Amino acid sequence: MGPIGVFDSGMGGLTVLRALLRRLPDEDFIYFGDTARVPYGTKGARTVRAFARQDAAFLHAQGVKMIVVACNTASAFALDELQQEFPVPVLGVIEPGIETALARTRGGPIGVIGTSGTIRSGKYQEGLARVVGAARVRARECPLFVPLAEEGLTEHPITEMAVAEYLLPLREARVDTLILGCTHYPLLKRAISRFMEPETALVDSAEALAGAAARTLAERGLVRPAVAPPVAAGEAAPARPQLEFWLSDVPWKFAEAGARFLGRPIESVRQVNLDEVEQAGRLVREQRRGA
Amino acid sequence: MGPIGVFDSGMGGLTVLRALLRRLPDEDFIYFGDTARVPYGTKGARTVRAFARQDAAFLHAQGVKMIVVACNTASAFALDELQQEFPVPVLGVIEPGIETALARTRGGPIGVIGTSGTIRSGKYQEGLARVVGAARVRARECPLFVPLAEEGLTEHPITEMAVAEYLLPLREARVDTLILGCTHYPLLKRAISRFMEPETALVDSAEALAGAAARTLAERGLVRPAVAPPVAAGEAAPARPQLEFWLSDVPWKFAEAGARFLGRPIESVRQVNLDEVEQAGRLVREQRRGA
């Protein structure tokens, strides 16, 4: 009955935490953002897998009852391995995003956008193609979207231009559903939706993931009981859900960016030394070799 | 008489290596790019210092005779410390950039652009202000320039727009000299120079650093003798200068990006496990504590 652990390459995963908090208001959460090594989306599969294992191990060492991989790139490259390595449920954002897109498409092509790593992994494309056939799937990497969202240029002519540059082939293909396959992209939702045809449904992995997390908790009997009000006057108020933020670096624009992604200010954050995160990862790897 | 070690947060430092190769064609070089943890420019001082120490220690363990900190952000936060920690000369890019700008200014304001870390460290501004006074110094952080250069959008309307957005205050201040205080920015030189007044001198830290490296080698008697042609027919050809590339990650767009920054294709690259880099850093830290 511990907290739910959520990790991401950096602060983008706060959009996922935001959806989880809305959906599961009685749960405790620990968020870990690997801000010292962000981004993951441009980096190779082997590197992303090593980082993701360390991030998950750090959360697991805090006694979490479930691990949410908020980062699409880490979900693409490391989810299977993490599910084998950890004894708690490990959820990624890709499968829920695919399911939502399949539920919303009206027979037209389905588009997916993401980082270079996520798109080159082919995970979204394979999952979609298994159901609708490869001919109905369109994928695009949009590498500038992450820095644009991080810089807060959500409504800026530069962003309009980048959106047009990346999304024109998807608009021309008349996709009826578009998966925002990166935690940063919901911040650009308005600019994306202005550029696409009005009938294109935008699928936000964060919302889809929160639904999947609620189902998993229920199935495994891991739901934290709702906090009851004090029974009698004078009785201590019950503890409110706890929210802890850990980062491997406190970046220059942390306060602004954090509030932008989470939708409210982050009151306090703790910095974890990268050595500790790596050490947690090494222990898991060794235990696995020993087993 | 070992090779010269050059490190950078990633591949931007290849613009520095390119200048070094032109200036010191008889020297051997080892380049290390910390592509697994790139970028440094958005990250905090403590994180950058820890990474820089590890990078330098990795090069030092290969027996280099000099260490060049090609990354402006690492130079800003870690140079003093590295110079104390390593027994070989350690050169950064900031001091040479300042000297060149001071030699080229014609009495007008001097501008400097760089990453958030470099600009917020205040190193360029302090060095310039000591000579010309703070009133003549203008600084701007240009966070989108790194992803634009990495994506190869060197001549693209998005880049034109970002250049105008960041540099307008510097153009309006009529700076007569502008320091490109990030290894990525020389790739955007044409777009920058089109936007600024034609008489503005652009100072490329890479060129300035190569000159400083040549002077340091000469002063310390570390110059590698020029390779002589074979004396007699049948004699083995002398070994040509060696060039080794080490990266902590092989990113998705390595081949294109590498050639763009170095100005020629990179024939072979070796991937070093991040564990080894961290281990090298730990040894230096422990030795220092023990000393």
Q: Could you please describe the fold and organization of this structure?
A:
The structure is a homodimer of 291-residue chains. The first copy, chain A, is of the alpha/beta class and 291 residues long. Chain A has two domains: 4-92 and 207-290, Rossmann fold (3-Layer(aba) Sandwich), CATH 3.40.50.1860; 95-205, Rossmann fold, CATH 3.40.50.1860. Helices cover 47% and strands 14% of the residues of chain A. Chain A contains twelve helices and ten strands. Chain A has helices at residues 14-23, 45-61, 72-85, 94-104, 116-121, 123-132, 145-150, 157-172, 189-195, 205-219, 254-262, 274-290; strands spanning 4-8, 29-33, 66-69, 90-92, 110-114, 137-141, 177-180, 201-204, 243-247, 270-271. In chain A, the strands form two sheets. A six-stranded parallel beta sheet of chain A has the order 4-3-1-2-9-10, with helices on both faces. In chain A, strands 6-5-7-8 form a four-stranded parallel beta sheet, sandwiched between helices. In chain A, α1 (14-23) crosses α10 (205-219) and α4 (94-104) runs parallel beside α6 (123-132). The radius of gyration of chain A is 19 Å and the shape is globular.
Helix-strand layout with pairing:
The structure is a homodimer of 291-residue chains.
Chain A: E1 4-8, H1 14-23, E2 29-33, H2 45-61, E3 66-69, H3 72-85, E4 90-92, H4 94-104, E5 110-114, H5 116-121, H6 123-132, E6 137-141, H7 145-150, H8 157-172, E7 177-180, H9 189-195, E8 201-204, H10 205-219, E9 243-247, H11 254-262, E10 270-271, H12 274-290
Parallel strand pairs in A: 1-2, 1-3, 2-9, 3-4, 5-6, 5-7, 7-8, 9-10
Helix pairs in contact in A: 1-10, 2-3, 2-12, 4-6, 4-10
